[in-house]
Amino acid sequence: MNKFLILAELIHFLSFVLLYYKIKKTRSCLGISYKTQEIYLLVFLTRFCDLNIHFEIIDYVLRIFYLTFTALLIYTIRFQKPFSLTYQKEQDYSQFYNYIYPTAIVLTLIFHTGTSLTQICQSFSIWLEALAILPQMNLMQKIQDVENLAGYYVLCLGVYRGLYVISWYCRVFHAGWWCSTTIFGGTLAVIIYSDFVYLFFKNKGAFKVFV
């Protein structure tokens, strides 16, 4: 694992810590999209379906952490009081959500790393992860009053995806490695995050996204 991937995983881990800290500190789920967390849970379930295959211990720890923590966030947002009472269910909805899963499926059929069930699932997780943040961005746009920690959470996810894409392009130029699913899926995610990241640094509190 190169330095970009290590830094990316650290920032990814930090994003979970920030989100959970935000919820516990404010005792509120205001500005947090349950839909995004729901999509992320499916992302991790499909990506980590090869958990029995040999990995370094750090990979096992991170995979179990992401799965467990995402499930915990889902439970907290929807069922654990008083947090669940602040969930903005009506705001956290848009008809375009109906197209996220079909879009990921179509992209998987076009770009996939292989034909085995595991490879198809992992390819699907890459495309789904690229689209997973859209409900969160849409919610932030609707309420137009987001606490800084929620913004930093999305920022961390954007930086995490950006570092992964940088590491992949380094492998392309220096090692001749190429995986269209990984490259195109990561690039799509960076494009989606880029508008938010630009506005975050330009004016904190302004969350204009293209959804």
TrEMBL record:
Its main location: endoplasmic reticulum. InterPro entries: ER_ret_rcpt. The chain crosses the membrane at residues 6-23, 60-79, 99-128, 149-169, 175-201. It is a multi-pass membrane protein. GO terms for molecular function: ER retention sequence binding. The keyword Coiled coil does not apply. Pfam families: ER_lumen_recept. GO terms for biological process: protein retention in ER lumen; protein transport; vesicle-mediated transport. One of its GO terms (cellular component) is endoplasmic reticulum membrane. Keywords: Endoplasmic reticulum, ER-Golgi transport, Membrane, Protein transport, Receptor, Transmembrane, Transmembrane helix, Transport. It is found in: Endoplasmic reticulum membrane. The keyword Iron does not apply. Belongs to the ERD2 family. This is ER lumen protein-retaining receptor. It comes from Paramecium sonneborni.
